[in-house]
Amino acid sequence: MIKLKKSFPGVIALDEIDLEIYKGEVHALVGENGAGKSTLIKLVVGAYKKDSGEVYFDNQKVEFASPAQAFQSGLSVIYQENSLIPQLTVLQNIFLGVEQFTSLGIINEKEIYRQYLQITKRLGFELSPDEKVRNLGVAEQKLVEILKALIHKAKFIIMDEPTASLSENEIEHLFKIITELKSNQISILYITHILDEVFRIADRITVLRDGKKINTVFTREVDREKVITMMVGESLKNAYTSTFSKKKKSQKVVLKVENLKRKSRVNDISFIAFAGEILGITGLRGAGKTELSRLIFGADRLESGKIIIDNQPIRFHTPLDAVNHGISLIPEDRKKDALILMLELYKNITLPTLEQFSPGGVISRDKEFTATKKAIEKLDIKTSGIRQVTKYLSGGNQQKVAISKWLQAKPKVLIMDEPTQGIDVKAKVEIYHIVRKLAESGVCIIFISSEVSEVVKVSDRILVLSNGKITGEFEYGVNQEELMRTILKGSK
Amino acid sequence: MAKKKDLNLPGYWYLISKNGILFIFLLLCILLSIITPGFLSWANILNVLRQSSIIGIMAIGTTFVIIGGGFDISVGSILVLTAAMCVGLQYYMHWSLAILIVLIIGVLIGLLNGFLAAKIHIPAIIATLGTMTIVRGLAYLYTGGYPLYVEAPDFAYIGTGYLGPIPFPVILLIIMVAFWQFILERTRFGRYACALGGNKEAARLSGVKVDYYHILTFVVGGLMAAMSGVVYASRLLSVTPLAGQGYELDAIASTVIGGTSVSGGEGSVVRTLIGVLLLTIIANVFNLMGIHIYVQYVVKGAIILSAVGFDTYSKFRQ
């Protein structure tokens, strides 16, 4: 039914992917973060422009200019974060853009209800149609999105990690509906990391790695081991022959957290971290990594648990408290949380430590500029000058700014949340070196990343998080495959 | 790529876009001095400056509020309340004490505005809409609805006196602009105001006490509105509860014409002053040319839209 073929050469490219999805098939697309799954979807629906290649939909060659156009043609994507309008009701959302009108131009509520009932009956579930979407749970919102796709006559639905924030019951329900969709001859491309789900519902599996298609297999012909090997690759077993050699670990515990808890996202987490250590924390998306980092930094309120720095229990209320106790955080979302993009470089770099440059409240330009220049040199930030507006730096350089703003604060614990996300390979390696250097100078680095290959390479010790709990701990030298297995196993 | 290059190498385009308002202002002055002969006379220049002083002082506070990501439409009401009290309190006490009290009142209203916006999380424009109404009501209650008068030659000096050849309110305006420009550019408070206006969450995660500084910007807004109220009272020596209506809009207009970003994060007190002068000059010239005041409204509105539109559209294009 669908044949995708595209070459997209380049560094972060997708390379000559062929993918065929049959009518009424559930096809799983699996691969690690950065394998190219999202890029693939975006190319198909026209969110990105492809370099070459073709997309066939219903045996017709198509060229979608935008996701909206794809949607009109019957190709829907259900993204992780929903695209519904929270203030509108279930019905209003579902029929948005395809409202039925009476001859007078008034919305024909009757007809809309009729269609709604017809379709919900077919799928065997009910939602109160006049409820506002903002009052629904995540799972119900997913259902609304599916309904919306069906009302828009979707023949092909792409689901991007649909179970990421669902409970077990809700996942069951979703699977039932997927089966129902299948029997209605609707095709589904199911994108996930979670192999359990794949084996339960997929007819076939396609594995992507580093922008390349590894293989497409029938689910009944393979087992988990084989899929994991396809995902991480045989050769990567040697990945720990890297340049980031492990130094002798100090025995000084600098950070200790006990029974941290907040909602269900961080559920009873305890660990210790040593001075001069790079402690990697990994896990799937939604495992609670970012939430954990924000708790330790005082950005969110702790429900219960203790944070102990240098043997002193500390009660945080604000990030400022954390900073004053020697904890720094480089947040995951660089543009939203880490930097003030509209301000000049030097204003970003000196922001957390401005007091050092402003005795009595008045900023000393000389001191501030000298410190900024030093910081730029130290991390080799590529910029036209200290007055450059941060927005215009490349991703890698922005990340360096986000790191360098904390160096002057001389933190004891530096938490880095996905520090290499969205930056090119060269910048990544530079960041690894910076991280190692900092650790050697005695800083305890908490290196949070969902990219397994990088965690393995960089960390002295690794904690695996899933569903808000620590499910594994590994020393440096762990086999990537083994780590991957722990990550996937704990994710039920 | 080409766009990036421009910003890396601040050429004359960069200078124009950064100081566009100054170029327009100078151009307008030259143009006007040619068509209206009386325009560049010493008397008229002083007149323009003196007319600008009340809005100018008020707009300094507005600039801080907008840079901090807020909005304050209560300043016109603060002006009338503080002006009325400044006159009324002089029946009981020395004028200097009255000034001190009304400045404190300005600070307190600013605190309330800041508290409502930063702590209670009412959108700033709505919070100050509420306080605007309350404060206007207080002004009516205080005056009983009638104009208040005062005879005080010493007090009148603030609004009408001269220091050498220059009117005192003009000197006060210039001192205030210089002082607050310094605060904005060279102090921690100024920097933090820009940071939280630019991205409040990022500022918070950098260890900035964002709520505190957010409130502080409103305090500056209240304080400067009260100071403009003092100048107003001293200039007219009489205050009706109807005074100061629409002043907040002029203050906001001057600020945005001066290039302070409506979404917060960047701006300049000096450029706000230029914005104030621009609006005053246009009114001044229309008066000199005998054009009806109604036309002035239309032109003023058009200027506001073009100034802000230029800013927002060029950002959108990026």
Structural account:
The complex is a heterodimer of chains A (492) and B (318). Chain A is α/β, with parallel strands linked by helices and 492 residues long. Chain A is built from 18 helices and 20 strands. In chain A, the strands form 4 sheets. A 6-stranded mixed sheet of chain A has the order 6-7-8-3-9-10, sandwiched between helices. A 6-stranded mixed sheet of chain A has the order 16-17-18-13-19-20, sandwiched between helices. In chain A, β9 and β10 (212-218) form a beta hairpin. The longest helix of chain A has 16 residues, at 168-183. Chain B has 318 residues and is mainly α. Chain B has a domain at 57-243. Chain B is built from 14 helices and 4 strands. A two-stranded antiparallel sheet of chain B has the order 1-4. In chain B, strands 2-3 form a two-stranded antiparallel sheet. In chain B, α3 runs parallel beside α8. The longest helix of chain B is centred in the C-terminal third of the chain and has 27 residues, at 210-236. The model of chain B is unreliable at 1-10 (pLDDT under 50). Classes of the chains: A alpha/beta (492), B mainly alpha (318). The interface between A and B is medium-sized, with 34 and 27 residues.
Short description:
Helices cover 35% and strands 24% of the residues of chain A. Chain A is of the alpha/beta class and 492 residues long. Chain B is mainly alpha-helical and 318 residues long.
Question: What's the SSE blueprint?
Answer:
The complex is a heterodimer of chains A (492) and B (318).
Chain A: E1 2-8, E2 14-21, E3 26-30, H1 37-45, E4 52-57, E5 60-62, H2 67-72, E6 75-78, H3 90-94, H4 109-123, H5 138-151, E7 156-160, H6 168-183, E8 187-192, H7 195-201, E9 204-209, E10 212-218, H8 224-232, E11 253-262, E12 266-274, E13 278-282, H9 289-296, E14 304-309, E15 312-314, H10 319-324, E16 327-330, H11 334-338, H12 345-350, H13 354-357, H14 365-379, H15 395-407, E17 413-417, H16 425-440, E18 444-448, H17 452-458, E19 461-466, E20 469-475, H18 480-489
Parallel strand pairs in A: 3-8, 3-9, 6-7, 7-8, 13-18, 13-19, 16-17, 17-18
Antiparallel strand pairs in A: 1-2, 1-4, 4-5, 9-10, 11-12, 11-14, 14-15, 19-20
Chain B: H1 2-8, H2 12-35, H3 42-67, H4 75-88, H5 95-119, H6 124-143, E1 148-149, H7 153-160, E2 162-163, E3 166-167, H8 168-186, H9 188-198, H10 200-204, H11 210-236, E4 238-239, H12 247-257, H13 269-288, H14 293-317
Helix pairs in contact in B: 2-13, 3-8, 3-9, 3-11, 3-12, 3-13, 4-5, 4-6, 4-11, 5-6, 5-11, 7-11, 8-9, 9-11, 12-13, 12-14
